[in-house]
Protein backbone atom coordinates (compact mmCIF):
# COMPACT_ATOMS: atom_id res chain seq x y z
CA UNK A 1 0.00 0.00 0.00
CA UNK A 2 1.35 3.41 -0.94
CA UNK A 3 1.93 5.79 1.97
CA UNK A 4 2.50 9.55 2.05
CA UNK A 5 6.18 10.39 1.69
CA UNK A 6 7.78 11.76 4.82
CA UNK A 7 10.24 14.46 3.78
CA UNK A 8 12.11 14.50 7.12
CA UNK A 9 15.13 12.61 5.83
CA UNK A 10 18.76 13.62 6.17
CA UNK A 11 19.71 12.22 2.76
CA UNK A 12 18.09 11.61 -0.60
CA UNK A 13 19.52 8.08 -0.70
CA UNK A 14 20.73 5.42 1.68
CA UNK A 15 22.85 2.76 -0.05
CA UNK A 16 22.88 -0.36 2.14
CA UNK A 17 25.69 -2.72 1.19
CA UNK A 18 26.18 -6.13 2.76
CA UNK A 19 29.92 -6.83 2.92
CA UNK A 20 31.49 -10.26 3.22
CA UNK A 21 35.04 -11.12 2.13
CA UNK A 22 35.16 -8.85 -0.92
CA UNK A 23 38.40 -6.99 -0.20
CA UNK A 24 39.62 -7.04 -3.84
CA UNK A 25 36.42 -5.37 -5.10
CA UNK A 26 35.07 -3.27 -2.24
CA UNK A 27 36.89 0.00 -2.91
CA UNK A 28 35.71 0.03 -6.52
CA UNK A 29 32.11 -0.43 -5.37
CA UNK A 30 32.37 2.34 -2.77
CA UNK A 31 34.07 4.72 -5.20
CA UNK A 32 31.15 4.33 -7.62
CA UNK A 33 28.89 5.76 -4.91
CA UNK A 34 31.31 8.56 -4.03
CA UNK A 35 31.35 9.64 -7.70
CA UNK A 36 27.56 9.96 -8.12
CA UNK A 37 26.73 13.23 -9.88
CA UNK A 38 23.84 13.87 -7.49
CA UNK A 39 26.52 14.90 -4.97
CA UNK A 40 27.68 12.35 -2.41
CA UNK A 41 28.25 14.69 0.53
CA UNK A 42 24.91 16.45 0.16
CA UNK A 43 22.67 13.59 -0.91
CA UNK A 44 23.96 10.11 -0.09
CA UNK A 45 24.36 7.94 2.98
CA UNK A 46 26.39 4.77 2.53
CA UNK A 47 25.77 2.02 5.09
CA UNK A 48 28.40 -0.72 4.99
CA UNK A 49 27.34 -3.81 6.93
CA UNK A 50 30.38 -6.00 7.55
CA UNK A 51 28.79 -9.42 7.92
CA UNK A 52 31.62 -11.13 9.78
CA UNK A 53 34.28 -10.81 7.07
CA UNK A 54 37.52 -12.70 7.69
CA UNK A 55 39.60 -10.74 5.16
CA UNK A 56 40.42 -7.02 4.99
CA UNK A 57 36.87 -5.98 4.06
CA UNK A 58 36.01 -4.68 7.53
CA UNK A 59 39.16 -2.56 7.68
CA UNK A 60 38.40 -1.09 4.25
CA UNK A 61 34.93 -0.12 5.48
CA UNK A 62 36.44 1.61 8.52
CA UNK A 63 38.99 3.43 6.38
CA UNK A 64 36.27 4.98 4.22
CA UNK A 65 34.14 5.80 7.27
CA UNK A 66 37.02 7.80 8.76
CA UNK A 67 37.25 9.79 5.53
CA UNK A 68 33.50 10.51 5.37
CA UNK A 69 32.19 10.28 8.95
CA UNK A 70 29.00 12.23 8.18
CA UNK A 71 28.00 10.08 5.21
CA UNK A 72 29.30 6.58 5.83
CA UNK A 73 28.00 4.28 8.56
CA UNK A 74 29.79 1.00 9.29
CA UNK A 75 28.17 -1.87 11.15
CA UNK A 76 30.28 -4.85 12.19
CA UNK A 77 28.22 -7.96 13.01
CA UNK A 78 28.63 -11.74 13.19
CA UNK A 79 27.98 -13.53 9.94
CA UNK A 80 24.26 -14.00 9.43
CA UNK A 81 23.78 -13.83 5.67
CA UNK A 82 22.91 -11.08 3.24
CA UNK A 83 19.28 -10.79 4.40
CA UNK A 84 20.24 -10.11 8.02
CA UNK A 85 22.93 -7.64 6.91
CA UNK A 86 20.46 -5.69 4.79
CA UNK A 87 17.92 -5.65 7.61
CA UNK A 88 20.58 -4.21 9.93
CA UNK A 89 21.19 -1.46 7.39
CA UNK A 90 17.49 -0.69 6.94
CA UNK A 91 17.16 -0.17 10.69
CA UNK A 92 19.56 2.80 10.63
CA UNK A 93 18.89 4.16 7.14
CA UNK A 94 18.20 7.92 7.07
CA UNK A 95 17.69 8.36 3.33
CA UNK A 96 14.41 9.02 1.55
CA UNK A 97 15.11 6.17 -0.88
CA UNK A 98 17.05 2.96 -0.20
CA UNK A 99 19.13 0.75 -2.46
CA UNK A 100 20.98 -2.51 -1.74
CA UNK A 101 23.99 -2.46 -4.06
CA UNK A 102 26.16 -5.54 -3.65
CA UNK A 103 29.69 -5.03 -2.40
CA UNK A 104 31.42 -6.09 -5.62
CA UNK A 105 29.18 -4.20 -8.04
CA UNK A 106 28.89 -0.57 -9.16
CA UNK A 107 26.44 2.16 -10.17
CA UNK A 108 27.12 4.46 -13.12
CA UNK A 109 27.60 8.11 -12.07
CA UNK A 110 24.17 9.40 -13.15
CA UNK A 111 22.12 6.54 -11.69
CA UNK A 112 21.05 8.17 -8.43
CA UNK A 113 20.19 11.51 -10.03
CA UNK A 114 18.12 9.78 -12.74
CA UNK A 115 16.23 7.69 -10.18
CA UNK A 116 15.66 10.68 -7.91
CA UNK A 117 14.20 12.76 -10.73
CA UNK A 118 11.81 9.91 -11.57
CA UNK A 119 10.70 9.47 -7.96
CA UNK A 120 9.99 13.19 -7.60
CA UNK A 121 7.66 13.02 -10.60
CA UNK A 122 5.97 9.68 -9.74
CA UNK A 123 6.34 9.42 -5.97
CA UNK A 124 2.63 8.84 -5.36
CA UNK A 125 2.41 6.05 -7.95
CA UNK A 126 5.25 3.65 -7.08
CA UNK A 127 7.11 2.19 -4.11
CA UNK A 128 10.16 1.10 -6.07
CA UNK A 129 12.14 1.99 -9.19
CA UNK A 130 14.37 -0.28 -11.25
CA UNK A 131 17.40 0.35 -13.47
CA UNK A 132 18.90 -2.03 -16.08
CA UNK A 133 21.66 -4.48 -15.17
CA UNK A 134 24.81 -4.86 -17.25
CA UNK A 135 27.48 -7.49 -16.56
CA UNK A 136 31.19 -6.75 -16.51
CA UNK A 137 34.48 -8.57 -15.91
CA UNK A 138 33.96 -12.21 -16.97
CA UNK A 139 31.33 -11.20 -19.53
CA UNK A 140 30.18 -7.88 -20.93
CA UNK A 141 26.52 -7.99 -21.88
CA UNK A 142 23.08 -6.81 -20.74
CA UNK A 143 20.99 -8.84 -18.32
CA UNK A 144 18.37 -10.98 -20.02
CA UNK A 145 15.55 -9.06 -18.30
CA UNK A 146 16.64 -5.77 -19.85
CA UNK A 147 13.98 -6.15 -22.55
CA UNK A 148 11.66 -4.16 -20.31
CA UNK A 149 13.84 -1.08 -20.93
CA UNK A 150 13.72 -1.43 -24.74
CA UNK A 151 11.69 1.76 -25.22
CA UNK A 152 14.52 3.70 -23.53
CA UNK A 153 11.80 5.69 -21.76
CA UNK A 154 11.49 6.21 -18.02
CA UNK A 155 7.95 5.17 -17.14
CA UNK A 156 5.58 3.54 -14.67
CA UNK A 157 5.00 -0.15 -15.39
CA UNK A 158 1.61 -1.66 -14.60
CA UNK A 159 2.20 -5.37 -14.07
CA UNK A 160 -1.46 -6.22 -14.58
CA UNK A 161 -0.86 -5.52 -18.28
CA UNK A 162 2.94 -5.98 -18.57
CA UNK A 163 3.09 -9.16 -16.51
CA UNK A 164 6.36 -10.36 -18.09
CA UNK A 165 8.30 -7.33 -16.79
CA UNK A 166 9.92 -9.28 -13.98
CA UNK A 167 11.84 -7.45 -11.24
CA UNK A 168 13.73 -9.76 -8.88
CA UNK A 169 16.89 -7.87 -7.93
CA UNK A 170 16.87 -5.51 -4.96
CA UNK A 171 20.40 -4.42 -5.87
CA UNK A 172 19.13 -2.80 -9.08
CA UNK A 173 16.01 -1.44 -7.38
CA UNK A 174 15.41 1.67 -5.27
CA UNK A 175 12.79 1.58 -2.52
CA UNK A 176 10.90 4.25 -0.64
CA UNK A 177 12.22 4.17 2.91
CA UNK A 178 8.72 4.08 4.41
CA UNK A 179 7.80 1.09 2.23
CA UNK A 180 10.48 -0.89 4.06
CA UNK A 181 9.02 -0.19 7.50
CA UNK A 182 6.73 -3.21 7.14
CA UNK A 183 8.84 -5.22 4.71
CA UNK A 184 12.30 -6.58 5.45
CA UNK A 185 14.34 -9.43 3.99
CA UNK A 186 13.43 -13.00 4.98
CA UNK A 187 16.45 -14.38 6.84
CA UNK A 188 15.29 -17.96 6.27
CA UNK A 189 16.18 -17.58 2.59
CA UNK A 190 19.70 -17.94 1.29
CA UNK A 191 18.39 -17.35 -2.24
CA UNK A 192 15.42 -15.33 -3.51
CA UNK A 193 15.37 -13.01 -0.49
CA UNK A 194 15.37 -10.17 -3.05
CA UNK A 195 12.45 -11.62 -4.97
CA UNK A 196 10.33 -12.11 -1.86
CA UNK A 197 10.92 -8.59 -0.56
CA UNK A 198 9.98 -7.11 -3.93
CA UNK A 199 6.98 -9.42 -4.37
CA UNK A 200 5.60 -8.30 -1.00
CA UNK A 201 5.47 -4.73 -2.32
CA UNK A 202 4.12 -5.67 -5.75
CA UNK A 203 1.28 -7.69 -4.24
CA UNK A 204 0.19 -4.46 -2.51
CA UNK A 205 0.82 -2.21 -5.52
CA UNK A 206 1.51 -3.93 -8.88
CA UNK A 207 3.24 -0.85 -10.28
CA UNK A 208 6.89 0.15 -10.30
CA UNK A 209 9.11 2.54 -12.20
CA UNK A 210 11.79 1.81 -14.76
CA UNK A 211 14.63 4.25 -15.46
CA UNK A 212 16.78 3.16 -18.44
CA UNK A 213 19.14 6.13 -17.95
CA UNK A 214 20.63 4.55 -14.82
CA UNK A 215 22.80 1.44 -14.88
CA UNK A 216 23.62 -1.23 -12.32
CA UNK A 217 26.95 -2.87 -13.15
CA UNK A 218 26.97 -6.50 -12.01
CA UNK A 219 30.37 -8.10 -11.60
CA UNK A 220 30.36 -11.58 -13.14
CA UNK A 221 33.39 -12.75 -11.24
CA UNK A 222 36.12 -14.63 -13.03
CA UNK A 223 36.60 -16.60 -9.81
CA UNK A 224 32.97 -17.80 -10.08
CA UNK A 225 32.41 -17.61 -6.33
CA UNK A 226 29.44 -15.27 -6.12
CA UNK A 227 26.23 -16.54 -4.52
CA UNK A 228 24.30 -16.89 -7.78
CA UNK A 229 27.12 -18.71 -9.55
CA UNK A 230 27.22 -21.36 -6.82
CA UNK A 231 23.49 -21.69 -6.18
CA UNK A 232 23.08 -25.03 -7.96
CA UNK A 233 25.42 -26.70 -5.51
CA UNK A 234 23.39 -25.76 -2.43
CA UNK A 235 20.40 -27.57 -0.97
CA UNK A 236 18.67 -24.30 -0.10
CA UNK A 237 18.26 -23.39 -3.76
CA UNK A 238 16.22 -26.52 -4.38
CA UNK A 239 14.17 -27.03 -1.22
CA UNK A 240 14.12 -23.89 0.93
CA UNK A 241 13.66 -21.44 -1.94
CA UNK A 242 10.61 -23.32 -3.22
CA UNK A 243 9.13 -23.68 0.24
CA UNK A 244 9.74 -20.16 1.54
CA UNK A 245 9.45 -18.13 -1.63
CA UNK A 246 7.75 -19.94 -4.52
CA UNK A 247 4.89 -21.47 -2.54
CA UNK A 248 4.66 -18.39 -0.31
CA UNK A 249 4.13 -16.21 -3.42
CA UNK A 250 1.53 -18.56 -4.93
CA UNK A 251 -0.35 -19.00 -1.65
CA UNK A 252 -0.21 -15.31 -0.75
CA UNK A 253 -1.59 -14.33 -4.15
CA UNK A 254 -4.45 -16.82 -3.88
CA UNK A 255 -5.23 -15.64 -0.36
CA UNK A 256 -5.36 -11.98 -1.42
CA UNK A 257 -7.06 -12.26 -4.81
CA UNK A 258 -8.69 -15.69 -4.95
CA UNK A 259 -6.51 -16.47 -8.00
CA UNK A 260 -2.87 -16.06 -9.00
CA UNK A 261 -2.31 -12.95 -11.18
CA UNK A 262 -0.29 -13.43 -14.34
CA UNK A 263 2.56 -11.25 -13.05
CA UNK A 264 2.98 -13.51 -10.01
CA UNK A 265 2.86 -16.62 -12.19
CA UNK A 266 5.41 -15.21 -14.64
CA UNK A 267 7.75 -14.20 -11.83
CA UNK A 268 7.52 -17.64 -10.23
CA UNK A 269 8.04 -19.49 -13.52
CA UNK A 270 11.02 -17.28 -14.35
CA UNK A 271 12.55 -18.30 -11.02
CA UNK A 272 11.68 -21.98 -11.46
CA UNK A 273 13.12 -22.35 -14.95
CA UNK A 274 16.68 -22.51 -13.63
CA UNK A 275 15.84 -25.74 -11.82
CA UNK A 276 14.85 -27.35 -15.12
CA UNK A 277 18.29 -26.51 -16.51
CA UNK A 278 20.12 -28.71 -14.00
CA UNK A 279 21.27 -31.83 -15.85
CA UNK A 280 21.61 -33.98 -12.76
CA UNK A 281 21.40 -33.05 -9.08
CA UNK A 282 24.49 -34.39 -7.28
CA UNK A 283 23.83 -36.69 -4.32
CA UNK A 284 26.23 -34.49 -2.37
CA UNK A 285 23.61 -31.73 -2.64
CA UNK A 286 20.34 -33.66 -2.22
CA UNK A 287 19.83 -37.16 -0.87
CA UNK A 288 17.60 -39.45 -2.98
CA UNK A 289 14.73 -38.73 -0.57
CA UNK A 290 15.28 -34.97 -0.75
CA UNK A 291 15.47 -35.19 -4.53
CA UNK A 292 12.06 -36.90 -4.60
CA UNK A 293 10.64 -34.14 -2.39
CA UNK A 294 12.16 -31.43 -4.58
CA UNK A 295 10.78 -32.87 -7.83
CA UNK A 296 7.32 -33.16 -6.30
CA UNK A 297 7.48 -29.56 -5.09
CA UNK A 298 8.76 -28.39 -8.48
CA UNK A 299 5.88 -29.90 -10.40
CA UNK A 300 3.31 -28.98 -7.75
CA UNK A 301 4.34 -25.37 -8.40
CA UNK A 302 4.29 -25.77 -12.19
CA UNK A 303 0.77 -27.22 -12.05
CA UNK A 304 -0.38 -23.88 -10.59
CA UNK A 305 1.00 -21.91 -13.54
CA UNK A 306 -1.07 -21.34 -16.66
CA UNK A 307 0.14 -22.96 -19.88
CA UNK A 308 0.57 -19.66 -21.70
CA UNK A 309 2.84 -18.34 -18.95
CA UNK A 310 5.14 -21.37 -19.33
CA UNK A 311 5.19 -21.14 -23.12
CA UNK A 312 5.89 -17.38 -23.05
CA UNK A 313 9.09 -17.74 -20.99
CA UNK A 314 11.86 -16.10 -22.99
CA UNK A 315 14.75 -18.15 -21.56
CA UNK A 316 13.22 -21.61 -21.40
CA UNK A 317 14.19 -23.89 -24.28
CA UNK A 318 11.56 -25.38 -26.57
CA UNK A 319 12.39 -28.93 -25.46
CA UNK A 320 11.89 -27.99 -21.81
CA UNK A 321 8.59 -26.28 -22.58
CA UNK A 322 7.31 -29.41 -24.30
CA UNK A 323 8.73 -31.66 -21.57
CA UNK A 324 6.88 -29.65 -18.92
CA UNK A 325 3.68 -29.70 -20.98
CA UNK A 326 3.94 -33.46 -21.50
CA UNK A 327 4.01 -33.99 -17.73
CA UNK A 328 1.45 -31.32 -16.94
CA UNK A 329 -1.00 -32.69 -19.52
CA UNK A 330 -0.49 -36.38 -18.65
CA UNK A 331 -1.85 -38.91 -19.39
CA UNK A 332 -2.26 -37.06 -22.72
CA UNK A 333 1.41 -36.37 -23.38
CA UNK A 334 0.84 -34.88 -26.81
CA UNK A 335 0.39 -36.42 -30.26
CA UNK A 336 3.16 -36.11 -32.83
CA UNK A 337 1.84 -34.22 -35.87
CA UNK A 338 3.45 -33.86 -39.29
CA UNK A 339 2.72 -31.25 -41.95
CA UNK A 340 4.46 -32.35 -45.13
CA UNK A 341 3.45 -29.17 -46.95
CA UNK A 342 5.28 -26.90 -44.52
CA UNK A 343 7.86 -29.61 -43.80
CA UNK A 344 7.37 -29.42 -40.06
CA UNK A 345 6.37 -31.46 -37.00
CA UNK A 346 5.16 -30.69 -33.47
CA UNK A 347 3.36 -32.19 -30.48
CA UNK A 348 -0.34 -31.41 -30.34
CA UNK A 349 -2.21 -31.28 -27.05
CA UNK A 350 -5.98 -30.83 -26.72
CA UNK A 351 -5.72 -27.06 -26.29
CA UNK A 352 -2.25 -26.11 -27.54
CA UNK A 353 0.79 -27.14 -29.55
CA UNK A 354 4.45 -26.86 -28.60
CA UNK A 355 7.60 -25.79 -30.44
CA UNK A 356 7.84 -26.86 -34.03
CA UNK A 357 10.77 -29.02 -35.14
CA UNK A 358 11.68 -26.47 -37.83
CA UNK A 359 12.27 -23.83 -35.16
CA UNK A 360 15.09 -25.67 -33.40
CA UNK A 361 18.44 -24.04 -33.94
CA UNK A 362 20.92 -24.95 -36.64
CA UNK A 363 24.35 -23.41 -36.16
CA UNK A 364 26.71 -22.75 -39.04
CA UNK A 365 30.30 -22.90 -37.85
CA UNK A 366 32.55 -23.20 -40.90
CA UNK A 367 32.55 -22.76 -44.67
CA UNK A 368 35.75 -23.59 -46.53
CA UNK A 369 36.17 -22.98 -50.26
CA UNK A 370 38.08 -25.98 -51.64
CA UNK A 371 39.46 -26.56 -55.13
CA UNK A 372 36.35 -28.31 -56.48
CA UNK A 373 33.73 -27.89 -53.77
CA UNK A 374 32.57 -26.15 -50.59
CA UNK A 375 33.02 -27.79 -47.19
CA UNK A 376 30.21 -26.77 -44.82
CA UNK A 377 30.19 -27.58 -41.10
CA UNK A 378 27.67 -26.90 -38.36
CA UNK A 379 25.49 -28.38 -35.64
CA UNK A 380 21.75 -29.08 -35.70
CA UNK A 381 19.65 -29.30 -32.54
CA UNK A 382 17.29 -32.27 -32.26
CA UNK A 383 14.59 -32.76 -29.63
CA UNK A 384 14.68 -36.44 -28.77
CA UNK A 385 10.91 -36.84 -28.42
CA UNK A 386 10.91 -36.62 -32.22
CA UNK A 387 12.03 -39.77 -34.06
CA UNK A 388 15.81 -39.78 -34.33
CA UNK A 389 17.02 -38.49 -37.74
CA UNK A 390 17.56 -41.14 -40.37
CA UNK A 391 19.85 -38.59 -42.00
CA UNK A 392 20.67 -34.91 -42.26
CA UNK A 393 20.89 -33.46 -45.74
CA UNK A 394 21.20 -30.25 -47.73
CA UNK A 395 18.57 -29.48 -50.35
CA UNK A 396 20.20 -27.49 -53.13
CA UNK A 397 17.87 -25.84 -55.63
CA UNK A 398 18.96 -24.15 -58.86
CA UNK A 399 16.11 -23.16 -61.17
CA UNK A 400 14.08 -26.33 -61.69
CA UNK A 401 16.88 -28.65 -60.54
CA UNK A 402 17.14 -29.97 -57.00
CA UNK A 403 20.07 -31.91 -55.51
CA UNK A 404 20.22 -33.70 -52.16
CA UNK A 405 23.58 -33.77 -50.41
CA UNK A 406 23.80 -36.06 -47.40
CA UNK A 407 25.70 -34.90 -44.33
CA UNK A 408 28.00 -36.89 -42.13
CA UNK A 409 26.83 -36.33 -38.55
CA UNK A 410 27.42 -37.39 -34.97
CA UNK A 411 26.22 -36.30 -31.53
CA UNK A 412 28.23 -33.56 -29.87
CA UNK A 413 28.95 -34.83 -26.33
CA UNK A 414 29.56 -31.26 -25.13
CA UNK A 415 26.05 -30.14 -26.12
CA UNK A 416 23.65 -32.63 -24.59
CA UNK A 417 20.62 -31.23 -22.77
CA UNK A 418 19.26 -33.17 -19.82
CA UNK A 419 16.89 -32.74 -16.93
CA UNK A 420 17.06 -35.02 -13.90
CA UNK A 421 19.39 -37.32 -15.83
CA UNK A 422 17.01 -37.69 -18.78
CA UNK A 423 18.46 -36.73 -22.15
CA UNK A 424 16.04 -34.31 -23.84
CA UNK A 425 17.95 -32.83 -26.77
CA UNK A 426 21.31 -32.97 -28.53
CA UNK A 427 23.28 -31.07 -31.12
CA UNK A 428 24.32 -33.17 -34.10
CA UNK A 429 27.61 -31.96 -35.57
CA UNK A 430 27.53 -32.30 -39.34
CA UNK A 431 29.78 -31.94 -42.35
CA UNK A 432 28.68 -31.60 -45.98
CA UNK A 433 30.60 -31.32 -49.25
CA UNK A 434 28.94 -29.37 -52.11
CA UNK A 435 30.51 -29.64 -55.58
CA UNK A 436 30.80 -26.35 -57.46
CA UNK A 437 29.03 -27.91 -60.42
CA UNK A 438 25.76 -27.67 -58.43
CA UNK A 439 25.96 -23.86 -58.45
CA UNK A 440 24.40 -21.93 -61.31
CA UNK A 441 22.41 -18.70 -61.54
CA UNK A 442 20.60 -18.42 -58.20
CA UNK A 443 21.28 -21.37 -55.89
CA UNK A 444 19.41 -21.95 -52.61
CA UNK A 445 20.75 -24.26 -49.88
CA UNK A 446 18.28 -25.49 -47.23
CA UNK A 447 19.11 -27.66 -44.23
CA UNK A 448 16.81 -30.63 -43.64
CA UNK A 449 16.48 -33.90 -41.76
CA UNK A 450 14.53 -37.10 -42.24
CA UNK A 451 12.04 -37.59 -39.38
CA UNK A 452 10.41 -41.00 -39.70
CA UNK A 453 10.10 -40.58 -43.46
CA UNK A 454 8.99 -36.94 -43.28
CA UNK A 455 11.23 -34.03 -44.28
CA UNK A 456 11.80 -31.33 -41.66
CA UNK A 457 13.36 -28.10 -42.94
CA UNK A 458 15.22 -25.87 -40.46
CA UNK A 459 13.98 -22.27 -40.30
CA UNK A 460 16.29 -21.04 -37.57
CA UNK A 461 19.81 -20.77 -38.99
CA UNK A 462 22.39 -19.07 -36.79
CA UNK A 463 25.92 -18.14 -37.80
CA UNK A 464 28.59 -18.67 -35.20
CA UNK A 465 31.33 -16.06 -34.87
CA UNK A 466 33.81 -18.15 -36.88
CA UNK A 467 31.42 -18.60 -39.82
CA UNK A 468 32.68 -16.37 -42.67
CA UNK A 469 29.29 -15.12 -43.93
CA UNK A 470 27.50 -12.41 -41.97
CA UNK A 471 23.79 -11.68 -42.28
CA UNK A 472 23.83 -9.72 -45.49
CA UNK A 473 25.69 -10.15 -48.76
CA UNK A 474 29.26 -11.08 -49.46
CA UNK A 475 31.05 -11.64 -52.76
CA UNK A 476 32.76 -15.02 -53.22
CA UNK A 477 34.72 -16.68 -56.01
CA UNK A 478 33.52 -20.25 -56.71
CA UNK A 479 35.37 -22.17 -59.40
CA UNK A 480 36.52 -18.89 -61.00
CA UNK A 481 32.95 -17.50 -61.03
CA UNK A 482 31.82 -14.62 -58.82
CA UNK A 483 28.76 -15.11 -56.61
CA UNK A 484 26.91 -12.98 -54.10
CA UNK A 485 26.31 -15.11 -50.99
CA UNK A 486 23.46 -14.31 -48.60
CA UNK A 487 22.55 -15.92 -45.30
CA UNK A 488 19.01 -15.72 -43.93
CA UNK A 489 17.28 -17.58 -41.09
CA UNK A 490 16.00 -20.16 -43.58
CA UNK A 491 18.70 -20.73 -46.20
CA UNK A 492 22.00 -19.91 -47.80
CA UNK A 493 21.67 -18.27 -51.23
CA UNK A 494 24.35 -17.89 -53.89
CA UNK A 495 23.58 -15.59 -56.83
CA UNK A 496 25.92 -15.60 -59.79
CA UNK A 497 27.37 -12.16 -60.43
CA UNK A 498 25.91 -10.88 -63.73
CA UNK A 499 25.52 -7.26 -64.90
CA UNK A 500 21.91 -7.34 -63.62
CA UNK A 501 22.80 -8.87 -60.25
CA UNK A 502 25.71 -6.45 -59.84
CA UNK A 503 23.37 -3.50 -60.43
CA UNK A 504 20.80 -4.94 -58.03
CA UNK A 505 23.39 -5.54 -55.31
CA UNK A 506 24.89 -2.08 -55.80
CA UNK A 507 21.39 -0.56 -55.44
CA UNK A 508 20.77 -2.54 -52.24
CA UNK A 509 24.14 -1.40 -50.87
CA UNK A 510 23.34 2.27 -51.59
CA UNK A 511 19.90 1.94 -49.98
CA UNK A 512 21.45 0.38 -46.86
CA UNK A 513 23.88 3.30 -46.57
CA UNK A 514 21.07 5.83 -46.99
CA UNK A 515 19.01 4.11 -44.29
CA UNK A 516 22.02 4.08 -41.98
CA UNK A 517 22.67 7.80 -42.54
CA UNK A 518 18.98 8.63 -41.94
CA UNK A 519 19.03 6.53 -38.76
CA UNK A 520 22.12 8.31 -37.44
CA UNK A 521 20.48 11.67 -38.07
Describe the 3D structure:
The protein is 28% helix and 30% strand. α6 (193-204) runs parallel beside α8 (240-257) and α8 packs parallel to α10 (288-302). It is built from 13 helices and 25 strands. The strands form five sheets. Strands 3-2-1-4-9-6-10-8 form an eight-stranded mixed β-sheet, with helices on both faces. Strands 16, 17, 20, 21, 23, 24 and 25 form a seven-stranded antiparallel β-sheet that branches. Mean pLDDT is 93; it is low at 1-5 and 225-229. The longest helix has 22 residues, at 499-520. The chain folds into three domains: 11-226, Spore Coat Polysaccharide Biosynthesis Protein SpsA, Chain A (Alpha-Beta Complex); 232-316; 358-515, Immunoglobulin-like (Sandwich). It is globular. By secondary structure, the chain is an alpha+beta fold.
Helices and strands in order, then pairings?
Elements: E1 11-19, H1 23-34, H2 40-43, E2 44-51, H3 57-67, E3 72-77, H4 82-92, E4 95-99, E5 106-107, H5 111-122, E6 128-130, E7 133-137, E8 155-158, E9 173-176, H6 193-204, E10 207-210, E11 216-220, H7 235-238, H8 240-257, H9 262-272, H10 288-302, H11 307-311, H12 318-328, E12 335-339, E13 344-348, E14 362-369, E15 373-383, E16 392-398, E17 401-406, E18 408-419, E19 422-435, E20 442-451, E21 454-457, E22 461-463, E23 473-478, E24 481-487, E25 492-496, H13 499-520
Parallel strand pairs: 1-2, 1-4, 2-3, 6-10, 7-11, 14-22
Antiparallel strand pairs: 4-9, 5-11, 6-9, 8-10, 12-13, 14-15, 15-19, 16-17, 16-20, 18-19, 20-21, 20-25, 23-24, 24-25
Protein name: Hyaluronan synthase
Organism: Blautia obeum
Domain Glycosyltransferase 2-like: 14-182
Amino acid sequence: MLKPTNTNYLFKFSIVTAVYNVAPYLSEAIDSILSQDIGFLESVELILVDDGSTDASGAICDEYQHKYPENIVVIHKPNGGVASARNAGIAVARGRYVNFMDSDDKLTPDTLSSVYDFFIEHDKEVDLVSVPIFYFEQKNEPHRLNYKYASDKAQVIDLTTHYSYVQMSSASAFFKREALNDHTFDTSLRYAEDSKAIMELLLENPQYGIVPQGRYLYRARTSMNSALNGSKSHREWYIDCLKNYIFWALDEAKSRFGAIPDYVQYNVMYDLQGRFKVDEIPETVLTPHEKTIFLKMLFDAVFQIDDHIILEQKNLSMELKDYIMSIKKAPDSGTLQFDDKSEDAWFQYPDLSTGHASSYQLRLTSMELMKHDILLEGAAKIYLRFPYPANLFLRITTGHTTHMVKCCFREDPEHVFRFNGQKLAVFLKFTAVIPYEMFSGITHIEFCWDCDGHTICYHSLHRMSEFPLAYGQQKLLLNKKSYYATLSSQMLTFEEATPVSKLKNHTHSVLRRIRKICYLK
